[in-house]
Amino acid sequence: MTALFVRQPDKTMLPFDAAAAAIADADEDIDDLDQDGAAAEGGWQGSRLRSSFSRLIWRSSSPGNWASISWVRPLEIWVGAGGQSGHQLSTPVGRLDFLCVDRQAGALVVVELKRGRSSDKVVGQVARYIGYVGTHIAQPGQAVEGLIVAHDADDALRYAVAAFPGLRVMTYEIAFQLRSVAGPA
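The structure assignment produced for this chain is given below.
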């Protein structure tokens, strides 16, 4: 049997784990459902939007993108002892959008991006990631926290997040500007 590998965004190769991929696919499906569990507008295109959103934040060719975001705490992308990146970190329990380190507090912070209005189901997803990171990545005594980034937060999400100390939700707005281009000189 041939071993399969997956190239990570930082160009490292990791063994492909079909079980983790299935969990990651299920997690992405959370984004593709509306409040009532029906397919949300966008379907697979919505997943592509989420991926584009992640790349916009991460984009290494524009280092100002990450630095220009007001995370309310000084976050930097976690880098493992083996050089693995905290961006799109594959684990046996799913793929984390970002695993970060709070430079002041020293805590590890799981950042989960959700396009559109997020369901309170994301709290279970983030709790699973926090549990894994606390067990397998964090140093003894190192805090592990979570941050859900969504376009909107309804009361169901707010109440679910309130039940977990160390878990926060932030909302985002996306704006772009058009600039006039001058004619040839």
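Interim note for the steering committee: The first helix runs from residue 18 to 31. The helical segments are 18-31, 43-58, 64-67, 122-136, 155-162.
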